[in-house]
What does this fold into?
Amino acid sequence: MKRKGLRFYAKIYCKILAQDLKSKMSYRADFIISTIGMIFTNIAGFISFWILFRNFPSINGWGYYEMLFLYGFSLVSLTPVQCFFDNNWSLRQHVYTGDFIKYCFRPINTFFYYQSEIFDIKGLGQLAFGLITLIYSWIKIGLGFTPLMLLKMIVFLITASLIMIALQNAAAATCFWIQNSFYVLDLAYRFRDYAKYPITIFSPVFRFIFTFLMPIAFIAYYPSLVILRPDKVPLLSWLSPIIGIAFFWLSYKIWMHGAKNYSGTGS
Amino acid sequence: MSAIIEIKNVSKEFKVLNRREGLKGSLKDLFSRDYKTVKAVDNISMSIQQGEIVGYLGPNGAGKSTTIKMMTGVLEPTSGEILVGGNIPYQNRTKNAQEIGVVFGQRSQLWWALPLVESFKILKDIYQIPNEKYEGILKLYRSLVDIDPLLHKPVRQMSLGQRTLSDILAAFLHDPKIVFLDEPTIGLDVAMKSRIRTLIHALNKERNTTVILTTHDMGDVDALCKRIVIIDKGKMLYDNDIDHLKSFFGSYRTLKIRIDGELKEQATLIQKELPQFSVSANDEWISVLVDEEKAKVIEVLGKLQHSYNVKDMQLEEISTEDVIKKIYEEGVQ
It folds into this structure.
């Protein structure tokens, strides 16, 4: 038997993805309605943001376009978790009914096998909205452009995604131990809304919580500082890629630990 | 011939919280550390050869699923040794998974939205099945069942029977040494049951695959298994040939009679009259399981004829179902 490396998993993922997209598009009405729904969700989110900032020209020294930048940044960085890890939402159901056991019988990584089952296409619309917002605000702020900035941008977008994925993995994995884990997952999901705002607007207690306990400040705020305020970047910003990888690894371990101890229900 | 599955003195214990009744009890449970240990599987040993079909039987909650989960590597035994194809399943779950196939009667393991053939192609990649082997097995499948109408149908549009059939085909696809079938015919109609039995039988013969079959349907057992293992309350009750089992209860015969009136009510009356035998009733017949060492069937019939107007009667040798039922109730003497 050959060793199962990254190429092996990438190949299988692409196959499942291609088939999944094909079957999704064959349900045309379903596909169109969910696309329209996704567009409206994004427009609604944008409008509420716009109304807010018509009334407050700046928050704690953050101007309109800077806030827009944060908003776009968080939309883009939330795309991978939406697209690739959406099956975490059903984990609770699978575990509760005992269906999860089927993921234990394949000779591949359980986490991979589980997450590969669902690809949420709605995330792509979010990505488009996010990118447009990000580029628009980038131009309006007049940040200029260097290859280094682009590199920084990509690294920190990946970092932010990893943190969001980690948060969701860990929250979903709680269902291996507690029955009502939906609230944990929902809490994690709701907290990410706060990621759109500069952390300095919160009280010191929440600033601490969002930095060290629920690290949502790393989703948009700390990474954006590197681009927006290059002259006063805190150490935490530079550390965030490492923190992102560490958090992701930790959440993966928690998830796998739960899956390993899973014993199923009677049949 | 060496054993493909070797189980030695295996036990599995679960810790269960002692639950109290009522709301007050539930509140106390929140803080309670009052656990009791439940033995789901208690000191089981068996050895299964390559190519055997073994019926693994027992009433609900007997510990069947727990044993299967230990053999597939999902659960770790509390004590004892399990070797499946030379691997310790719990320690080498991935390696073990390559060598086995699993089917759960009610839970499809295929990709819900994908046509069967696409599921097969993904499995081909996951199990790294070489092309010629894959083509070979598809050819075999074609010769055994009419799979072409199934291949391009998404799994979610299939009937339960088609889905079970597909799941079994998928489980055998990578030519595993062992296939575990957990109630494969549950909820299926008679014709589909028979198709599935024929398929399992043929695959076992063709590929010499070991099959571990748990079921509550004695038709499955009669059609497929030479050997059966029975467990109850975690303990092994029986492990031998199915013919041997029948000779255990050779002195038993079932007397079926038809009389006037509501059969269920009459059966209770007859049961009172014949306390030493078990009496049951269905829509057409009242059945009395007679132990000929205690009383001859003719005597029992005479006795019944005396007090009831017997319109029709049948005599049957004991069926596997009755034997198993007796073992569940009384154990092997």
Q: What stands out?
A: The two ends of chain B are 32 Å apart (CA to CA). The CA atoms of residues 167 and 228 of chain B lie 24 Å apart.
